[in-house]
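User: We ran a pulldown and think these components assemble together. Before we commit to crystallization trials, I'd like a predicted model of the whole complex to look at. Sequences follow.
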Amino acid sequence: MYHSIYDLVTGPLTWLGFGVLVLGGLFRMVSLYSLAKKKDASSIAYNKAKYGIRSILHWITPFGTLGWKENPVITVVTFVFHICLLATPIFLGAHIDLWDLNFGVSWPALPDHVADIMTVLVIAAGCFFAYRRVVDKTVAFVTTWKDWFALCVTMGPFITGFLAYHQIFNYQFMIVLHVITGIAWLLFIPFGRLSHAILGWYSRVYIASEFQGVRHAKDW
Amino acid sequence: MKKCITLMLALAAVVVFILPAFCQEDITEIKDPAFQTLKRPAVPFMHDEHNEKAGLDGCLPCHHEGMENGEFVEGDPAKCADCHEVAPTDDSTDLKTAYHQQCIQCHEDAAKGPVACGECHVK
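Assistant: Here's a predicted model for the assembly, 343 residues in total across the polymer chains.
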């Protein structure tokens, strides 16, 4: 019973997750770009890689923009959250071992205790965001179920991964739940709130080109 | 006379080999000293109990002496680390992967036994 569940989630369902991530992501990028070309051709004409890259480089630098300087706590938590969120699953030793076993590819891994701390940082930052959505009236006003859903999907694999690594509760149950929540993570990246991971760059290039190319002003 | 010598030699062989045979302690965990520092807890492994449960008579499918036509060749029950290095400089299988491949693949094929990290590396 356990073996067939484990095989199902780590086999076909994992392929489905990565498939939807790649194909769904490509579909969203292509369809939104062609929609923008159709509806907003005059703005697209001003889009330039130089403006986009300059803007993105500022916005991915902590305190590199006026926006990031305005609220230092949010800035620090946001950067810690996103860096740990991406680096932990990619550079986790156990994940790399699975890549190595299944595809014969590997790359340097983070020490387990460092990955463990980074996981805790993701969970802590997620709690901070949740707290803010409830307590900060401005944020609460614009919060819908979609934001809570995105937060839950994002946190799922980290909470279950932490519990599985430390072997808290039933391990087999937790590891299967970890894989399922991880697949949900991949499935939802191209859609809804989480799609900012692949589409946020578009907005940046768009705004950057309008500010720098048309108004001759900085957008950071 | 000839028979007597043969018998004596046989007896000598028994005396020589019986002690090490009984001295060999039961293997209860896999804690390969080749790994100088362990990243995960050592794996509890009752060698004889495992083989009995899995219905393994010979030393294959675990211990092998190289490969021929994609199949393992049965050999002396040598330790994995005798051939597999922790960090090989060529493209041979490293020690960790050798352990992982041997255990996980067999358990997957048999649909029995541990397959995920924490099932073997128990805290």
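The mean pLDDT of chain B is 84. That may be worth checking against your pulldown data before setting up trials.

User: Thanks, that helps.
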